[in-house]
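Input.
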Amino acid sequence: MNMNNIRNVVIIGSGCAGHTAALYTARAKLNPLVLEGHEPGGQLAITTLVENFPGFPEGIQGPELIDNMRKQASRFGAEYQHGHVTSVDLSQRPFKLHVGHQVVHTRTLIIASGASARWLGIPGEQALIGHGVSSCATCDGFFFSGKEITVVGGGDSAMEEAMFLTRFATKVTLIHRRDQFRASKIMLDRAKLNDKISLLTDTMVEEVNDVSQKEVTGLKLRNSKTGKVWDFPTSAMFLGIGHIPNAKIFEGQLDADKDGYLKTHNHVFTRVHGVYACGDVQDRRYRQAITAAGSGCMAALEVEKFLEEHPE
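Output.
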């Protein structure tokens, strides 16, 4: 192994957490390599107006915010590479990453691979993301103030989304494909007691309308028991069916919870020395751009400290 080819730090992922980690490690003269992954830019890349990221009083488009972060990190020497990590070996340092046919060795690793929203996979859904279809009530709920909207799901995530959205919407219809909810009793009871929430069970969403108008105008629904199909007017569809952390390649090497989110202690430390996790791949609670950026900063500072203490 040519020691000159070993990177100081490799960052997996190019969302808020990854770009922030790249900025901090680049300014520390660590020459980070950022592997952009199969979803460059993360969830912000498919978000329209972002109004809750500090420093932008008029808001900023998600892709523009991500592009600015990338340019800022690149200015200080961060190197970006297209590619998806297919396997890793964290059993010894330097760590070994397989990126297609390429093998990358690194002294430290920052995992910022994020989490992907679960989608229904129905007509109109992907085309209307950011135009009434959303997987983040906290991010987009404000845009539907005074309107009637829907939430799809049957677990605690869906209940939380529905209750949060009642702050803005005049009515929230919670659609679930089964007749029984998976949510905990306390969460379900809270939803039932909320006058703004209506429950629609045994119902599946078959299509999101209207792509031709470039906004959500309604849903095509089907009763899962009777087969009845009808159109349901709504201004937005929020998905409350969870996220999938992009952490499968670390199975057996890093600790994860039952849903696959990487476990960390002291914010960003994994159980392998020199490996840190930040952003949505380990944060199942907040999942915000600003919290992802903050944890990316933490991971970068820990990498800098680790390399100072292990200067091989």
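The helical segments are 16-27, 62-75, 137-140, 156-165, 185-193, 289-309.
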